[in-house]
Amino acid sequence: MAVSSVLAQFECLHSGFGASFQDFGRSGYRHLGVPISGAADKLSMACANALVGNANEDCVIEISMQGPQLLLTQASAQVALVGDIEAFVLFPNGHKQRLPSWRSTTLEAGQTLLCTKVNSGLAYLAVAGGWNAQCTLGSHSYYGRAELGQGLRSGQTYGVNVKAQLPDSLLTQTKIAERCAPPFEFDSAALRCVAGPQEDYFDAESIDSFYSQEWKLSMQLDRMGYRLEGTPLLHNALGAEIASDGVCVGAVQVPPNGIPIVLMADGQTIGGYPKIASVITADIGRLANMRANTSGASVASVRFAKVSLPEAHAILRAQKAAFEEWKNSIKPVRDLGDFDSETLLAHNLIDGILRGDE
Asked: In which order are the strands placed within the sheet that holds 304-306?
């Protein structure tokens, strides 16, 4: 898809809450203590990018609570939302139209994208060409604790590269044309893990307890880590601390209190607690979406299942292959009205859905 020299410009009227620029992350600096960061759910990020013809890793806006309000002040821009989020387009004449997730549409200058609350999990906002946020250490990802990258700020203007639009992709007050539907469904299947490098710091009973019990996600969670709640795990005679060593996204640390913490996208680079397991790459996105809704009314339950390293590699390869198959099947689709994913399914607009446990 050809890129125009004309830049679309968005003015941020409201930055929202829990919204940040993210891409695939800041690789190559962990030895300096810099986390990878990047999208917490990279598959959903890639889906949003695919809907507007971007590369998988192009910069998006990740939304965990309430999305931003963005006024398009110049040119046109094709956007797509992925996730369980409520969004609208506000026209210059005051008319407001609902914008469903999982389909792309083109905004014109003077229109405002209103991303309101995220009902559950995470949401991603992609724009054709990618968000032109500040690049720091090779990544557009925002890491708030160190102020790396560029935060989303009210009153600031953000540019994007405008790409040639697909046929029938113009948004008007009477018609929205979309390109596809959800490729990914989350469910209650166990999160798969490989054994941690310090699994031997726990006896067989504690290891069995980790995999057999149903854990609750604590409200103490953020992009750095998800703390669990459940029956504490007991360390054996080797102790509850180790000489600090490297950790990765998905590592399950067990501090002296026996309550596991799963490291997420902004997790630190080293740690001094034994790691009983590590959530596999293919399931990190599912875990990232298992969070209480914005009202705090629901608490997610988590179970874990052990797989071997070769099995983890095979699962990831299968997931990537399924995504590429879905991506290659994206076609422009004419509007069927103001509908949700169930209606899309009823009209056979999806070739296949990638479930989280497949």
From this structure: 301-302, 215-221, 225-229, 261-263, 251-253, 275-279, 191-195, 304-306
How far is Cα 54 from Cα 58, in angstroms, rounded to an integer?
A: 6
Q: Where are the domains of the chain?
A: 3-179, 191-309
CA–centroid distance for 42 within its chain: 5
- pLDDT, tens only, 183-237: 455 556 899 999 999 999 999 999 999 999 999 999 888 999 999 999 999 999 9
Q: How far apart are the first and last CA of the chain?
A: 31
Cα 191 from chain centroid? Answer: 16
Are the beta carbons of 81 and 113 closer than 8 angstroms?
no
In this structure, which topology does domain 191-309 adopt according to CATH?
Cyclophilin (2.40.100)
- The CA distance from 206 to 199, in Å, is 10
85, 88, 291, 323 from 100: Cα distances, Å: 8, 8, 22, 21
Average pLDDT on 129-139 reads 93
Nearest to 171 by CA among 95, 78, 234, 259: 78
Q: What is the pTM of this model?
A: 0.86
At 5 the three-state DSSP class reads strand
- Report how far Cα 193 is from the mean position of its chain's Cα atoms: 19
